[in-house]
């Protein structure tokens, strides 16, 4: 084999990120289960939908889903229970297991991909955002300002970015953002609530600028979000 790797000397030893949108079915299952936990559509201790249901929702084969769930059980992210009340459950210590999987380098790469995606979407869409379509995002920002529960805050933060991607890029781009954000959920612990609150100021600024069709300040707000720290 070519010593530089199958696809040539693109640098780095890790092929996971290089696949871009064409991640494996197993990666898809992992990232989407992680995203569901982040969005609290399932919580630690909850039973996951059956493999057949997940396969249909994700548009991939049931065998792939079963294999991916098996891998997640081996990693300690999920628990398999037998018997009548059996099934596949989100591990009660999900957060602890995720903390052990921490990979700062890959998380940072995904972060910069997501930043580029958002900057591109905002630059592309600014000036063409229909009147009234920002209302859903504005109410998320208002809800985040009031949220006390850290998990709720992080959930709303994730929703904001998924909804923003959909508003500016459509359903396919929402899925693309979901890939990036879902994979991140498994590589780094959720952001600190104080950081999310600081980011929420950037969300508000971004919506203001999008509302008046100001592209440069809108892109700046996206970049500020990345740097936001509690004051
Ligand atoms: Zn945010």
From TrEMBL:
**Residue ranges of domain HTH gntR-type in the record:** 23-93
**What are the alphabetically sorted keywords of the record?**
DNA-binding, Transcription, Transcription regulation
The record's section on Pfam families has: FCD (PF07729), GntR (PF00392)
Annotated GO molecular function terms are: DNA binding; DNA-binding transcription factor activity
Q: Extract the InterPro entries matched here.
A: GntR_C, TF_FadR/GntR_C, Tscrpt_reg_HTH_GntR, WH-like_DNA-bd_sf, WH_DNA-bd_sf
Region span, Disordered: 1-26
Question: PANTHER family this protein is in?
Answer: TRANSCRIPTIONAL REGULATOR, GNTR FAMILY (PTHR43537), UXU OPERON TRANSCRIPTIONAL REGULATOR (PTHR43537:SF5)
Q: What is this protein called?
A: GntR family transcriptional regulator
- Species of provenance: Streptomyces griseoruber
């Amino acid at each position: 084999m070519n010593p530089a790797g199958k696809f040539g000397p693109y640098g780095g030893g890790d092929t996971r990120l290089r696949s871009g949108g064409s991640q494996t079915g197993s990666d898809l299952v992992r990232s989407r289960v992680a995203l569901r936990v982040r969005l609290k559509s399932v919580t630690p201790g909850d039973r996951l939908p059956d493999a057949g249901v997940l396969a249909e929702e994700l548009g991939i084969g049931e065998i792939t889903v079963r294999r991916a769930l098996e891998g997640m059980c081996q990693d300690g992210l999920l628990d398999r229970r037998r018997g009548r009340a059996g099934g596949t459950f989100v591990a009660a210590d999900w957060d602890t297991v995720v903390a052990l999987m921490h990979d700062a380098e890959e998380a940072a790469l995904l972060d910069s991909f997501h930043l580029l995606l958002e900057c591109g979407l905002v630059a592309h869409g600014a000036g063409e955002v229909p009147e009234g379509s920002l209302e859903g995002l504005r109410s998320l920002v208002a809800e985040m300002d009031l949220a006390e529960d850290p998990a709720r805050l992080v959930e709303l933060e994730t929703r904001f970015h998924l909804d923003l991607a959909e508003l500016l890029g459509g359903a396919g781009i929402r899925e693309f953002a979901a890939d990036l954000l879902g994979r991140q959920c498994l590589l780094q612990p959720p952001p600190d609530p104080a950081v999310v609150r600081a980011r929420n100021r950037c969300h508000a600024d971004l919506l203001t600028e999008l509302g008046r069709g100001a592209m440069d300040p809108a892109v700046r707000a996206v970049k500020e979000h990345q740097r936001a720290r509690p004051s």
